[in-house]
Specification:
The structure is a single chain. By secondary structure, this protein is of the alpha+beta class. The protein has one domain. About 45% of the residues lie in helices and about 30% in strands. The protein has 1 helix and 5 strands, in the order H-E-E-E-E-E. Strands 1-2-3-4-5 form a 5-stranded antiparallel β-sheet, covered by helices on one side. Strand 4 and strand 5 form a beta hairpin. The chain is rod-shaped, with a radius of gyration of 30 Å. It starts with 9 loop residues before the first helix and ends with a strand.
C-alpha cells in the first residue's frame, strides 16, 4: 500500500461537488413546484371572480324578467362586465336562460329554467 504525503483534498472536493449538485437539483424541483402552485392559485382566483360575475349577471336577468316577462336582450351589463344571454321559450310561460362570460381562458356559464308571471326559478345549473 502506498502512502501519499501530499493529498490536496480531492476527495473532499468531489464530496462537496456531489452534495452541491444534489442540493441544486432539489432546489430546482422545489422552486418549479412552488411556481406551478402559484400559477394554479392565481387561475383559481380568476375563476372565482368570473363565477361571481356570472351570478351577478344572473341576478340582473332575473330582475329584468321580473319587471318584464318579454325581456329578450342578448347581453347584460353589470358594472364593467358584459355577459352573453340566450333566452329561449320552450313553451308558453316558461323560459330557459343561458348566461355565459369568458375572461381570458376562463369561461363560466349558468343555465336557469324558470316560469314567468310570477318568476319562479325551477333549476339553476352551472357549467364550465
Amino acid at each position: 500500500m502506498r502512502n501519499l504525503e501530499q493529498q490536496k483534498g480531492a476527495v473532499l472536493f468531489f464530496l462537496v461537488l456531489v452534495l452541491g449538485a444534489a442540493s441544486l437539483s432539489i432546489f430546482i424541483v422545489l422552486a418549479r413546484a412552488n411556481l406551478t402552485g402559484i400559477i394554479d392559485v392565481d387561475e383559481q382566483e380568476r375563476a372565482i371572480a368570473v363565477r361571481s360575475d356570472v351570478f351577478g349577471c344572473m341576478d340582473e336577468v332575473l330582475i329584468q324578467l321580473q319587471a318584464d316577462s318579454s325581456f329578450s336582450e342578448t347581453t347584460v351589463t353589470t358594472d364593467s362586465i358584459t355577459c352573453n344571454v340566450d333566452i329561449q321559450t320552450p313553451q308558453a310561460g316558461e323560459r330557459d336562460v343561458f348566461i355565459d362570460l369568458t375572461a381570458g381562458n376562463i369561461t363560466r356559464s349558468v343555465r336557469i329554467d324558470l316560469t314567468v308571471d310570477p318568476v319562479v326559478v325551477t333549476q339553476v345549473k352551472e357549467t364550465f
